[in-house]
Amino acid sequence: MTNANGEAFVQIRNLRKDFPIRVGMFSHVRLRAVDDISFDIPKGATMGLVGESGCGKTTAGRCLLRLIEPTSGEIRMGEHNLSDLKSEQVARMRGRMQMVFQDPGGSLTPRMTIGAILREPLDLHTNLNAHEKDQRVRELLTQVGLQPDHLSRYPHQFSGGQQQRIGVARAIATHPEFIVLDEPTSALDVSVRGQILRLLTRLQEELGLTYLFISHDLSVIKHTCNQVAVMYLGRIVEIGSTEDIFGSPSHPYTQALLSAVPIPDPAQRGKERLKLPGEVPSPIDLPPGCRLYSRCPYRRDACLEPGPPLLQVGESHKAACILVDENLRIGGSNTAALSQLA
Amino acid sequence: MIEARNSDTLLDVLGLHTYFYTYEGVVKAVNSVSYKLNRGEITGLVGESGSGKSVTAQSIIRLVKAPGKIVEGEVWLDGQDLMSCSETEMQTIRGRKISMIFQEPRAALNPLFTVGDQISRVIQLREGCSRSVAETHAVEMMRAVEIADPDRRANAYPHEMSGGMCQRVMVAMALSANPLLLIADEPTTGLDVTVQAQVLDLIRLRVKSAGSACLFITHDLGVVAELCERVIVMYAGRVVEQGPVAEIFSNPRHPYTQGLIASTLRVDIDKPISTIPGTVPDAVHLPSGCTFHPRCPFAEELCQLEEPQMVEAGHGHLTRCHIVSGRIEREMLEEAWTMETA
């Protein structure tokens, strides 16, 4: 996607979201879904947020748009500090920040025609007259590769890929600057997925959009994002440019995640893998140390101490693993050192 | 079929047709499908949604739900003609000779019984042994699928277990009967990649050690490349290509298979996002001639008029394309898939 350098357009600082979980008649425990995450997205760039189910990536994305209220932290978009705004003010900002959802069928109202679905954001956020709105709806359909005469049809008359095109058209209707894409291609067939990814890339170039791309699929992230943040149990465990993350993954979790992705090439079968035993533990009442401790093949006692913070690996590359620090001091690559330790 | 029947063949499917009689018209979900499965081999059945891959599996065990009907075809399992079996005979075959693993493990397990109970019931039915013997055996099976603390976990209900754990229980249940044939219908779709890697290892290990045959249905070419010996590619109810996995991936001959491989994104290499133009056709109104022709970048007039026959393309590799059979003289260039179509 567009290579964008320069100043951060979206800035997230120490974002945190707790959910209370009822455990008895009167008592609650805290589930920290998003734990102290910070990152910047430059204008016109795409930040990928990747992790397995339950890692907090969707919650983080929704907090960014204040679709759910963050517990604490700061969210800035351009000159606005979203975290300070009252909910009416946020509602007025909605036209400038939009979302595309995972399930294209489920996110379109079945009783509304495509025309009505696309007109709704225009009614809410613009002062266009009826004729102008009509024109804008037709323009949107063409922009996402659908026929303008489709506007009197209902969502069920479209295939999954076409429904997602409508979802994208709705998101760009009000000329937003920032779009959160929450697993936009996960429900689509392989042959159609590429079409939607290309559409998103083209629109980003044409409209100068800034994206947060949430996905569990590393191959999609690799092909769409400039920067990537890897999340595990609410925390960012590694963050860096796409080349950093895929070229020299430095956190054991990122390494395991990458090595677990099946490669569509039988010649590479049987390559060595970093396997994580067990499954993601319950996110309720987590111990203070490294979240991966229970599954990490390189764990030591020091990992149980609170933290670890994100440590610098490269210029823009950070990983939250104490081994990174040790290895950087001795100047070796983390991957090589990790395998020695194992 | 071109190959002679050999002793390694466990399942022989010949000219299978399964149609669904809907209000809109007849859906030819499985249209003249033929293939063989060998003992000790895992065969991948690949296709997108609506390609007929699941119905093919349901037809083998004769569990096609109305309005679907097996119209024509033969299914031979270990020398026994399944199409002429009575329903009572089929009931003993299902579970004893053929087992199935479904996509959603939680939906396939009974929420009212503990998992230990459900596994031991299968064992009791097959062995005719006492309940307590079956229960001991069930715990052993759970240990075999690497469920930690199986004695305690046997008393858990499906809702108390994670998706990955439930899928292990399904594998344990399916394999506890030592089936000749294991049908796995997208068993890892919806699981996280690190857990998927564990479940795939388990299926591979158990199938190989039992010498069973396995039909592994998936839409993920990565999984096929890692797991399977042979591949069958389906499109719109037809097998368009089949052969050994290394051969199909290195030398795909059908344009659909080529497009599918090209549009599969990979974490290990950088390449432009490719895509197959258009969408999967409407099942009631299939295109004339070759059903893939409206999406095929190499299609010519003959492809609209006449349906191609299955031809041998060397190395046990069968495909259904006029270009491969030599009816059309034309080169199939890889660049065709990276052309802008969005």
Automatic annotation (TrEMBL), chain A:
Sorted alphabetically, the keyword list is: ATP-binding, Nucleotide-binding, Transport
List, for all copies, the residue spans of the domain called ABC transporter: 10-258
A single MF term (Gene Ontology): ATP hydrolysis activity
Q: Please list the GO biological process terms of this entry.
A: peptide transport; transmembrane transport
Q: SMART domains from the xrefs?
A: AAA
Q: Sorted alphabetically, which PROSITE patterns does this protein's record hold?
A: ABC_TRANSPORTER_1, ABC_TRANSPORTER_2
Protein family per UniProt? Belongs to the ABC transporter superfamily.
Q: What is this protein called?
A: ATP-binding cassette domain-containing protein
Q: Could you tell me which species this protein originates from? A: Caldilineaceae bacterium SB0664_bin_27
UniProtKB/TrEMBL annotation, chain B:
Topology of the protein relative to the lipid bilayer: Peripheral membrane protein
Which GO MF terms does the UniProt record name?
Answer: ATP binding; ATP hydrolysis activity
Q: Which GO terms describe its biological process?
A: peptide transport
Main location class: membrane
Keywords on this record?
ATP-binding, Cell inner membrane, Cell membrane, Membrane, Nucleotide-binding, Translocase, Transport
Pfam families per record: ABC_tran, oligo_HPY
Entry's PROSITE patterns?
A: ABC_TRANSPORTER_1, ABC_TRANSPORTER_2
Cellular-component GO terms for this entry: plasma membrane
Top-rank taxon: Bacteria
Q: What is the lineage of its organism?
A: Bacteria, Bacillati, Chloroflexota, Caldilineae, Caldilineales
The residue ranges of the ABC transporter domain are 14-261
Tell me what this protein is called.
ABC transporter ATP-binding protein
Which family is annotated?
A: Belongs to the ABC transporter superfamily.
Q: Does the keyword Magnesium apply?
A: no
**InterPro entries per the record?**
AAA+_ATPase, ABC_Ni/Peptide_Import, ABC_transporter-like_ATP-bd, ABC_transporter-like_CS, Oligopep_ABC_C, P-loop_NTPase
Could you tell me which SUPFAM superfamilies the record lists for this protein?
P-loop containing nucleoside triphosphate hydrolases
Where is this protein found?
Cell membrane
